[in-house]
Amino acid sequence: MAKYTREEFEVLKQQELKKQKVLFEEFKRLTHKQFRESFESVLPIFVIVIGLSLVLAPVPSGTMLCFIASALLLIIGSAFFNMGADFSMSPIGEKVGAAIVKSRKLHVIVIVGLLLGFAVTIAEPDLQVLATQVPSIPEKALIYGVATGVGVFLVIALLRMFFKVPLNRLLIIFYAVVLVLSFFVPKGYRTISFDAGGVTTGPMTVPFIMALGVGVAAVRNDRHAEDDSFGLVALCSIGPILTVMILGILPSTGVIPELAGSASAEAAKTMEMEAASAPAIPDVATSIELAKLYYEGLPYYLKEMLSSLLPIVGAFVIFQIIALKIKARQLVKIVRGLVYTYVGLVLFMTGVNLGFLPTGYYLGEILAGGGNPWIIVPAAMVMGYVCVKAEPAVAVLNRQVEDMTDGAISERLMGTSLSIGVAISLGLSMVRVLTGISILWFIVPGYLIAIIISFFVPKIYTAIAFDSGGVASGPMTAAFLLPFAQGACACLGGNVATDAFGVVAMVAMTPLITIQGLGLMAAFKKKKKKVPVPTEPVFEDDMIIEL
User: Which residue has the higher pLDDT, 544 or 210?
Assistant: First the structure.
């Protein structure tokens, strides 16, 4: 045991106190930042709901009270969840990515990719919200099916990095498969499948998968590795689309449960999915009733979110024992981050299901039934325009594009372009609700345009654009705008499964065109200035993988 003089002991004590103070200030700064961003994310919807309730769609006082309480839960829950993702998901992703590259073994990449893709997707809050709203697919079946799709395509994405396959080539192949399958899938499954692809690129999945790519790039250490780390999320978002479509095609899963007893299996497969039942609109008279509503609902989400997080916790424990060997100080930080993630998930899901989702449904119903149903089009466009500006991930994306283009595309221009694009996509989604037009009339041309543009822009823009598909479709899209569309569709007598679902997919498609379009603009500006434009990465050092 080391011995210190009194003076040495005091010096060491002051150094430790100074270190603790720095850590506390850093934690306080991060906490303040996350709560501010969560508040700014929820505020636009909150203000719009208050405005609509005062002018066009009166909301019962009890329902409004639940909405206000849920807004507070969403702010707190989102802040804790995002802090948890920073402390746990990102460092786990980076370290696991580095570990699998160092192994140089193909079977390790496949097993780890499948396991982690599955585990992290189960805990994705946007997917949890979507699963509660899908009318005729069991909630667990949808979540596990989508998670399997993400796991398979995470393996494909990692192998693409190792074998240096161009991203746009894979995107063309897989989206061609999606397009072909879409003509054989029941219409209800078709819209839900595209929405599933949008929600899986959410606040849990994206940081983890992006960090995984960063970890792989860091170990690869060639000059193009960082550029090639983009594209993982782009491929992972295709997996859920294909998975849900397959669920609709397979005889054992394609039969709609509600119709299975009244028709043969083959006949039931051809029928449309039934409309989802309307969520219970909360109407509490006193603060005691409000407290009772949340007190009774909280235990369910405590249990559900614990079961959602257990797979990723179990996977982390296994990797820590076998390969990671993370030091105690950082391990404590990661564990603390997992606790924050759990608390945030519980509060977020409680607020969404008890207040936000029912209020969104109710407003859509009231506006569509108010004599002029077309009012839902401008209302949704305004919501989309302001909500995307408040998404924290969008701000990060805007700065990233500005840095990447050396200022040719400013952060402000990027933000305005995304807001306009999301507003248009939501307006078109409401047109679908009003007219019943198939989502294929929008999705197919949109993806074709995005893929065609990819041949004329630097490849890094294509990777970022497809990675960013889920950035615009943040938590508010699945938690409020999708229920808004469902309420309007139900009021107008439409088919909720085929006409209301697809909102998330429409919003997620926006960045594919917007970012690549701005990439064309940047390339044109650089060409005029005779500045070299980034081209397809050329790798100098081959990676050796042991089969």
Answer: 210
Torsions phi, psi for 386 (to 5 deg): -80, -30
> What gap in Å lies between CA 358 and CA 280, rounded to an integer?
7
- 155, HSE (Cβ side, Cα atoms, 13 Å): 17
Residue owning tokens 């042991």: 546
Neighbour tally for 465: CB within 10 Å: 27
**Model-level pTM greater than 0.90?**
no
Residue 221 pLDDT class (50, 70, 90 cuts)? low
Distance between CA atoms of residues 236 and 201, nearest Å: 8
From residue 304, alpha-carbon distances to 167, 277, 337, 421 in Å are: 36, 22, 19, 35
491 CB-near residues (< 8 Å, 6+ apart): 364, 365, 366, 368, 369, 373
Reference 484, options 319, 313, 364; nearest CA is 364
Task: Please tell me the distance from the alpha carbon of residue 161 to that of residue 153, in angstroms, as a whole number.
Answer: 13
pLDDT at residue 273 greater than cutoff 60: no
Q: 234 or 17, which is more confident?
A: 234
Rounded-to-integer distance, Cα 135 and Cα 399, Å: 39
Cα gap 17→23, rounded to integer Å? 10
Q: Higher pLDDT residue, 272 or 456?
A: 456
Structure tokens at 163: 């074998």
Entry field: residues in the chain = 547
What tokens were used for 290?
């409000």
- Residue reference for tokens 């952060």: 411
- The one-letter amino acid code at 62 reads G
105: β partners: 546
Confidence of residue 272 (pLDDT cuts 50, 70, 90): very low
pLDDT of 78 reads 87
Mapped onto helix, strand or coil, the DSSP state of residue 412 is helix
Higher pLDDT, 380 or 472: 380
The residue type of 451 is I
Model pLDDT, residue 226: 57
Q: Which of 49, 205, 43, 199 is nearest to 133 (CA)?
A: 199
Looking only at Cα atoms, what is the longest distance across the chain? 87
